[in-house]
Amino acid sequence: MKSVSGRELARLVERHGWQLLRVSGSHHIYGKTRQLRDARCIAIYHAKEIALADNFKTQRADAQFKKVQRAEDGRKAMSEYESDAAAVRAKTAQLRQLRLARDAKDAAAQPAAASATKAKRTRKPKSASGTLANWLKDREGSGHST
Q1: Under DSSP, is residue 24 helix (H, G, I), strand (E, B) or coil?
Q2: What is the DSSP letter of 28?
Q3: pTM over 0.85
Q4: Within 10 A of 105 (CB to CB), how many other CB atoms are there?
Q5: pLDDT tens for the chain, residues 1 to 146
Q6: CATH number of the structural domain spanning residue 30
Q7: N or C: which end of the chain has fewer CB within 10 A?
Q8: pLDDT of residue 132
C-alpha cells in the first residue's frame, strides 16, 4: 500500500475542487458544495501518514477469480455426480441380469426337485371340542381323580 502524508492528501483534494472549511485540532475539514443542501465533507488528519488502499483492481481480480473457481467447482461436482449416477445405473443393470439368470435357473430346477421330494403330509383336522362332561368322563376313564 502506498502511504501519503496528510499535507500531500490535502493538496490532492484541493486540486480536485474541495475547499478547506475549518480546522479542528489536527483534523482539516474539506468540503465540496454543489448546493447548500448537498454539502459533502472530508476530514483529513495532518499529524500522521495516511495509507491509501489501491486495492480496487486486486479486489476485482479476486472476485473474478472466485467466480471462475466456483464455476469450475460446479462443473467438476456435476461431472462427478453424473459419473456416479452412470456407475450406479450400470451396476443395477448388471445385478438385474444376474438376478434374472438365477431365477431362470431356479425355475428350471424346480420341477425336477418337486418330483424328487415326497408330498407333504396333511394333518388330521381336530376333533370337535366336546362338552365338559365328556372331558370329565375321559379323565376318569384314564385313571385321573377329580
Answers
A1: strand
A2: E
A3: no
A4: 10
A5: 577 788 888 888 888 888 888 888 888 888 876 655 566 788 888 777 776 666 777 788 888 989 999 999 999 999 999 999 999 999 999 999 999 999 999 888 887 655 556 556 677 666 666 788 888 888 888 887 75
A6: 3.30.920.30
A7: C
A8: 85
Contact predicate 21/31, CB 8 Å: yes
| Amino acid identity, position 10 | A
Asked if the structure places residue 71 within a domain, the reply is yes
Cell, residue 94: 448388471
DSSP conformation letters of 110-124 = HHHHHHHSPPPPPPP
Please check whether residue 80 is in contact with residue 29, taking contact to mean a CB–CB distance below 8 angstroms.
no
Domain that holds residue 11: 2-54
- Does residue 117 lie within any of the structural domains? no
Q: For residue 132, give every residue at least 6 positions away whose Cβ sits within 8 Å of its Cβ, in sequence order, or none.
A: none
Same domain, 25 and 50: yes
DSSP string, 5-69: EHHHHHHHHHHTT-EEEEEETTEEEEEEESSGGGEEEEEEE-SSEEEE---HHHHHHHHHHHHHH
Closest C-alpha to 20, from 46, 4, 49, 43? 43
Q: Distance from CA of residue 33 to its chain's centroid?
A: 52
Q: Are 2 and 52 in contact (CB under 8 A)?
A: yes
